[in-house]
């Protein structure tokens, strides 16, 4: 029985099985006319095109099957399609013609000539090749064909590489660049600077020849940002020949994620820069997100932003997750592009990651867990027609930053220890009106301490009338509110002798104004120091002001309770009678305002009073402590204290 390996060696007619054995095999012609090497190569190239699909499609592939006596194939028989597919699935190799003669109408030694209808491409029927035969073996047999080794070598060079030929994979070939590198390169010397490292976008780290620290230099032709007016957020750049040398900022990059309040503060600074550049006619189209640094002087950019003149076409640029869509498309520059950049920067500051590739969807923005920020980002990252302008961005940030302050109030009063004062003639009160709305709302806090005039009839009636009228007045100024209180005293006293002193404050938001008549007092503790806001309208105060008495003498003078101004003593408004502040005072967080009657400040030493106001953590304990010290000193008068603290 003939084995498949025997076919590799070209069996002789004597060794070939006879028809009686039921097996026919293709007999290779022994004497073929010699062909030129060029013709052999042409046929082989034709076969190559057949294999890679660029040649004619009428080609039969015959997949090998093991030959045995019980299962033989007849020359010229067209195999079933299923048999062909099974052979392909088995990984069999396609037939490689051994010579151009194989494609001719070959005649087996013992068989008839095959007709054209039976042999596609005018050649013999499918030739069985064992699956173990590779292209190398076929080429070794091709070397035995007419034409000699030279023809075989030519044929081998025309065939594809075996792994590529067998698997259909393509080889990858890398070509060297054909465009010449432009601009200065690392290692070159430009204008006295050795370029060290290419930082991208025209920037290099460099050293001045001979000496000097490493600096960043810009090597491209003079950019537009070099024409910008100085701004405290922009770095300082100096020309040096063909270069622009960047002055070091000596700052540190921001550590993200940032606190929302800090992020809003930094965003406001950058929004002001956009606003300033817009007024100069420029739009920011690119900004290095890693170049925003915090210095001792505040926020600063390590590198200048890339700008374009508004309305002019921009060179399309791309910085992943940051570049505005209109800049990527090369549309005319608009100031809104800078707002998009800041929106992408704010998103990264708060989340610690850049915008996703799919863009700023509502779902993505809603995941930013900071009050008001998703809405702000929606306006900053919106499509160009709906996007905020720099001016609108600043207004939005200002509105969002307006938060009502938080105050605490404590008060106490005591009748004292004087047996001749059966009634507490002191009165105090405060009212707090607060409304909340978009943009901040409104807060108004009024507080007052009033001391009924000792020795006068119905002093408590006068002080109570003054407090009620002052707190309920709708007059626009503190001075007018005090005069409303004076009118109420006159009404309630009904012609009786009596009056009162009054010290009141009104706080609108964070600004304080004072209205004062008499010798009750107002103190302000702020920044670690205490100052007296009110001026005493008293006899001893006038003596001190004229130099006839010292402050220490006035503190213990028996005349210290004599007042020169009071409510209820005048019926007509008099200019400069009521003391007010020339300008309202700004109350910072932690500030305290203390209102007291003379029964407190007259018995407690100023240094002790100041220490309690500055260092006592509890407001209620502050007023109670002052009253206790007044009682310890004998408390010859009624004592009242009211304190206000801004806690947030």
UniProtKB/TrEMBL annotation:
Region Disordered, as annotated, extends over: 1-40, 106-155
The family database entries (Pfam families) matched by this protein are listed as: PP2C_2
Enumerate the InterPro entries for this protein: Kinase-like_dom_sf, PPM-type-like_dom_sf, PPM-type_phosphatase-like_dom
Q: Where is the composition biased (Low complexity)?
A: 142-155
Which PROSITE patterns does the record match to this protein?
Answer: PPM_2
Domain PPM-type phosphatase span(s) in chain numbering? 408-646
Name the chain's protein. Answer: Protein phosphatase 2C
Write down the species.
Deinococcus hopiensis KR-140
